[in-house]
Amino acid sequence: MNETDAQHRERMQTLAAEMQAKTRAARTKRGLLIVHTGHGKGKTTAAFGMLARALAHGRRCAVLQFIKSGNDAVEKTLRGPQLEWRQVGDGFTWDTQDRAADIARGREGWALALGWLRDPAVQFIVLDELNVMLAYEYLPLDEVLAALRARPEGQHVVVTGRDAPPALVELADLVTEMRVVKHPFAAGVQAQAGIEF
Ligand code: ATP
Ligand code: MG
Q1: Is residue 196 in contact with ligand 1, taking CB distance under 6 Å?
Q2: What are 89-144's pLDDT values in tens digits?
Q3: pTM of the model as a whole
Q4: 191 CB less than 6 Å from ligand 1?
Q5: For the chain, which has fewer Cβ within 10 Å, the N-terminal or C-terminal residue?
Q6: From ligand 2's centre to the CA of 59, what distance in Å?
Q7: All domains of the chain, ordered by start, with CATH?
């Protein structure tokens, strides 16, 4: 064996040891803090996809929609004893007219979320549009981060919405940013059943 082969073997041994260490570490299971952010479509959709998976595995799940956007067909389909689904208020728009009312609804939603975040029986939580509530400073970031940090060990939480605060991104285990490549809205195509709701 020449020197190059020996060096190669050494490098491969190091690599194998690293991979084994990573695999061992990756065997650890724990609740994840997941953030879907960015300006492209798919943040809520991906969260609902995970929700369907969690329900399929018999997990107890809860969804809170901070910004209600009409009845979501997914709720009707996934409805059952393992799923609690709440929407706060009766509408919130980007050009909100009543800031105080939106803050009150946000607080109401956060109180519900806090109950789930303290309950180890709730295994999977979607906090839809929480990022937006935080970006608008409608909810105190420190309090939200503290509750997420203190939640039960096995509990998964998905937070969606544009403009996730950097401190939340820092705390999260899994962060995905949806980027717009194309959106049909730009071509004048309206929201459609089965695609947007
Ligand atoms: P979805 O709920 O479809 O997964 P989302 O959660 O990623 O979308 P939101 O910021 O919650 O996106 O926006 C909700 C609505 O706005 C959806 O109907 C979505 O199709 C639409 N939308 C998302 N991204 C864009 C965009 N870049 N341009 C126009 N409309 C968009
Ligand atoms: Mg959304």
Answers
A1: yes
A2: 665 554 567 888 889 989 999 999 999 999 999 999 999 999 999 999 999 999 99
A3: 0.87
A4: yes
A5: N
A6: 23
A7: 29-180 (3.40.50.300)
